[in-house]
User: Which sequence fits this backbone?
């Protein structure tokens, strides 16, 4: 059972203002803005290559925009990068499960890295991993790996979850558990930004399609 009481009481806005993203010398999107209050969710959609993963990396402070700003409570996130890193969980395409550590040890390791009180057993239990707690990461299936990566979200608290295709590889029941975890996180005042091509139940989530923000196609070459 995971707790749902209000644990994040920060009334600050998390905002992107007029963001421009360029990667490998090419414009990916321009003029992207949103604001996300406590308890809010943003659902990123868009065709392959429109910049969903890039946006999540920008929001995590792992990439810098070429224009615009990302603000927490009115302050640019790069003003205090340590504070921003401490308030978020970023879950990318790679699960980063340590192969020699057991499922339980993996969660302890991640929680210790964050220097936070860990809540390992409920996190394992929520994602139906209790029976696999002592199994080394290298022996887990792809879906079990993903569930363990998701269990990190619950094992140590962070106000902002940035999730890139979190339901890839999950069975139906686990997708439901993910939706439940997100709902409880939001009910406690947490925020979430999810990029996905798949259906994920997030009532009241704000949709943000990156399709409309793609740069215009290059003019046809004339030879
Ligand atoms: N490390 C990188 N260096 C240069 N360009 C990159 C890099 N990573 C991604 N890109 C480019 O940035 C653009 C956006 O990629 P991104 O992965 O953010 O898209 P996406 O919407 O998440 O795609 P998908 O739905 O396929 O996961 C693409 O044109 C891609 O080629």
Assistant:
């Amino acid at each position: 059972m995971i707790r749902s009481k209000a644990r994040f009481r920060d009334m600050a806005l998390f905002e992107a203002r007029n963001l421009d993203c360029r990667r490998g010398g090419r414009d990916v999107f321009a003029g992207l803005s949103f604001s996300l209050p406590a308890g809010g969710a943003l659902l990123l959609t868009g065709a392959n290559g429109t910049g969903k993963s890039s946006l999540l990396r920008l929001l995590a402070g792992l990439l810098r925009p070429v224009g615009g700003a990302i603000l927490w409570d009115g302050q640019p996130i790069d003003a205090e990068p340590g504070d921003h890193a401490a308030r978020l969980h970023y879950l990318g395409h790679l699960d980063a499960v340590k192969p020699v550590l057991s499922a339980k040890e993996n969660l302890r390791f991640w929680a210790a890295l964050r220097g936070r009180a860990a809540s390992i057993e409920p996190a394992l239990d929520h994602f139906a991993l209790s029976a696999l707690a002592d199994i080394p990461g290298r022996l887990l299936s792809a879906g079990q790996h993903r569930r363990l990566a998701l269990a990190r979200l619950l094992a140590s608290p962070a106000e902002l979850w940035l999730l890139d295709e979190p339901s890839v590889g999950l069975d139906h029941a686990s997708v439901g558990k993910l939706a439940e975890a997100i709902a409880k996180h939001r009910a406690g005042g947490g925020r979430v930004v999810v990029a996905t091509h798949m259906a994920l139940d997030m009532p009241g989530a704000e949709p943000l399609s990156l399709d409309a923000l793609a740069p215009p196609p290059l003019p046809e070459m004339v030879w």
Strands lie at 14-23, 26-36, 41-45, 67-72, 75-76, 88-91, 160-164, 191-195, 206-209.
